[in-house]
Amino acid sequence: MLITQYTKGILLIRDAFEGKIQYFQVMDESGSIDQSLMPPELTDAKLLDMLKLMLLTRNADAKAISLQRQGRAATYAPTLGEEAVNIGTATAMRKNDIFVPAFRQHGVYFARGLPMRLFYLYWMGFEEGNMIPPEVHGFPMAVPVSTQMPHSVGLAFAQKYKKTGNAVIAYIGDGGTSQGDFYEAINFAGVWHVPLVVVIQNNQWAISVPRSKQSAATTLAQKAFAAGIPGVQVDGNDAIAVYKATAQALKDAANGPSVIECVTYRAGMHTTSDDPTKYRSEADVSEWLKKDPILRLKLYLAKKGLWSEQIEAQVTDEQKKLIDSGVEEAEAFKPDPKSMFQNLYSFVPETLDDELKDSEANNFWQGE
Amino acid sequence: MLVNMVSAINNALELILKENKDAVLLGEDIGRDGGVFRVTEGLVDKFGDERVIDTPLAESGIIGTSIGMALAGMHPIPEVQFAGFMYLSVSQIVNHAARYRSRSRSTFKVPMTIRTPVSGGVRTLEHHSESPEAIYSHIGGLIVVEPSTPYDAKGLLIKAARMEDPVLFLEPTRLYRLFKQEIPEEAYEVPIGKANIVKEGSDLSIITYGTMVNVAKNVIEKKKVNAELIDLRTINPLDESTILNSAKKTGRVIVLHEAPLSFGVGAEISARIAEKAMFELKSPIMRVSSDSLPYPFPGYEKFYIPNEKKVSKAIEKIMSV
After folding, report:
1. Catalytic residue set of B
2. Is the preceding omega at residue B111 within 30 degrees of 0, hence cis?
3. What confidence category does residue A367 fall into, taking pLDDT thresholds of 50, 70 and 90?
């Protein structure tokens, strides 16, 4: 942590502190690994699982975009390019650790066993998609940026209060770290000393605003220091580095919260309503595509003889079946307008029931 | 026990903390200091600072972390020091506390009771005297309660703490120490969503809540009118049937509140009576409230809060039709 130096007589305001932030990488863009940094529990089988989950995330993503384009899904926020953050962190979670997403953590849901049907149901525009089974240990996406952060602190408080031994992971984007709720959350977490890991999924873009216009801070990880908690920066396109940092932070969470900034890139659009060509160049994008998180893990596993085009074709085929059946089940869903009234409170107030009955009796729900 | 509203709420909180091991209090200055109005006095000594928590000074953080605790199955009871400061946490209240259940079709619930002092008349600084009940009742998903007596305060708070819905519990500062009342020592509930007919009458109905209940009572006594006095106790959800029954019975209705006139609770009640009991009225519905202005500095509040004269004049007017 920081040591404050007291200097008598001389005021050194401009002699600003450059945050001592570690940048951590295990695997580079070519898929070469520093074996001395490799966590022993990440066996070849485990790495293959991670690659498959990253591919599943990408394939499910592509399907959702295509459904939106065909008018079969509502506005969708893709995860393209950010799969290593999703799967690296999710793989590090222990069985009962809890996650609180922003809205670009689809891979985390998949890794934690969310049924495909629910994923597509949500993006087709139905609240029923948020009926997340308890064994997923995750919460619905938060659309208002950063508002999920204080929830994660309260959840972590409850783990400590109830002595469950579980930790909480909260996700937030680079833009989200400009919000008041982000600062309030890490500040509360520091004071309460709760088992929380904050993952900043820095994808360089908050819709059209680049990271450079979001904060003058050299790193986003250093924001943790202001709350009195440790912060580290990792290569967010290196699933192994993300895994290792997260696993360590979760293990240490009993001793207090921490922040991990994962430096990644939003390779696609903000949402299906967005056109990134308006504000960023092709060159900028292609530079990042070389750092693609899936590409480098494939290269590494191919070198070991564990991955080939043939294997990939087979895996993709299996995943497409899973995705298609999820879509099919989601499209079979029939919304019941009564559910809007019946789930607002633990009871249906009389006045609200009158409104429900009025719509029902007059068949307004069948009208145009 | 003969207590004022501060002691009644303190007693309710103590019983809630005893009854539910997963209930916690959190807020600014609520521990050692006992809260700026001493509502939580002594509770930190009885339950420890893990359950009576002095938080950092951040309203959104207080409400947001409470939501997280509630999602984990606890029952947090956050205090926002003054309703005027609660606007810093409106995003959390409106976007999450009120909607979490609905957005997940009851898979996730937010059982929490937000306490905050409201209304004026105690000569405080700006932002310490707001009456924001209409704002929070408009959004849907949030139960809004406002007691006018020590008995109701204790019973409503205990009921709120046993519910699985988010409840906004508004405490009128002017009533905190205004009078004492005999109340039971043990836990009891006052139903939420049910208005109280304080006094039956046949000539007109005065529908009110919070600080204005006593004002109305005084005027009724002084003018010796045969008025029916209704204390809503719960603003949302509204006890429409009690309101309509009274309107139909007396045929004359005055809706009275301290909050400003426009787009307020009075408008809502008037509209419902107009829609469902119009032809049983003998006179147009009247609203008596403060004027459509932000709450003024204390030097001006006596010109702002509806006084007995204003209520008295309204009664004369409605009875003359």
Report:
1. 128
2. no
3. confident
Note the pLDDT of residue A1: 45
**CA-to-CA distance for A3 and B226, rounded, in angstroms?**
75
CB of B296 within 8 Å of a chain A CB? The answer is: no
B-chain residues near A166 (CB < 8 A): none
Residue A16 has pLDDT above 60, yes or no: no
What is the distance between the alpha carbons of residues A106 and A82, in angstroms, rounded to a whole number?
A: 10
| Residue closest to B232 by CA, chosen among B247, B210, B262, B249 | B210
List pLDDT tens digits, range B248-295: 999 999 999 999 999 999 999 999 999 999 999 999 999 999 999 999
Query: SS3 for B246?
Result: helix
Question: Residue A324's CB: how many other CB atoms inside 10 A?
Answer: 12
In this prediction, residue A196 carries a pLDDT of: 98
ipTM here: 0.96
Beta strands in B141-252 (DSSP E): 143-145, 166-172, 181-182, 196-199, 204-208, 227-231, 234-236
Query: Does CATH number 3.40.50.1010 belong to domain A23-335?
Result: no
A172 HSE (CA, 13 A, CB side): 30
Q: What is the mean pLDDT of residues A59-67?
A: 98
CA B4 – CA B179 distance, rounded (Å):
6
d(CA B312, CA B302): 16
Q: Where in chain B is the domain with CATH 3.40.50.920?
A: 196-319
- Asked if residue A227 has pLDDT above 80, the reply is yes
> H-helix or E-strand containing B54?
strand B52-54
pLDDT over 60 at B179, yes or no: yes
B2-182 has which fold?
Rossmann fold (3.40.50)
Output the average pLDDT for chain B: 98
pLDDT interval class at A5 (50, 70, 90): low
Residue A121 falls in which region: left (phi positive, over 0), alpha (psi -120 to 50) or beta = alpha
Averaged pLDDT, A199-209: 97
Round to whole Å and give the CA distance between B117 and B172. 6
> Does B102 contact A128 at a Cβ distance shorter than 8 Å?
no
The ranges assigned to domains in chain A are 23-335
Residue pairs between chains A and B whose CB atoms are closer than 8 Å: 136
Span(s) in chain B for CATH 3.40.50.970: 2-182
Strands (E), chain A: 23-24, 98-100, 168-173, 196-202, 205-206, 209-210, 231-235, 258-263
Bridge partners for A95 per DSSP: none
**Chain centroid, CA A122 distance in Å:** 16
Give the pLDDT confidence score for residue A22 in this predicted structure.
Answer: 85
Residue A84: what are its φ and ψ, rounded to 5°? -70, -35
Within 8 A by CB and 6+ apart from A121, the residues are: A128, A129, A330, A333
Chain B: residue nearest A354 by CA? B240
Please tell me the CATH code under which domain B196-319 is placed: 3.40.50.920
| Mean of pLDDT values over B20-48 | 98
How far B63 CA lies from chain A's nearest CA (Å)? Answer: 8
Closest Cα in chain A to B142: A345
Residue B50 has pLDDT above 70, yes or no: yes
Chain B hits for A139, CB-CB cut-off 8 Å, are: 71, 108
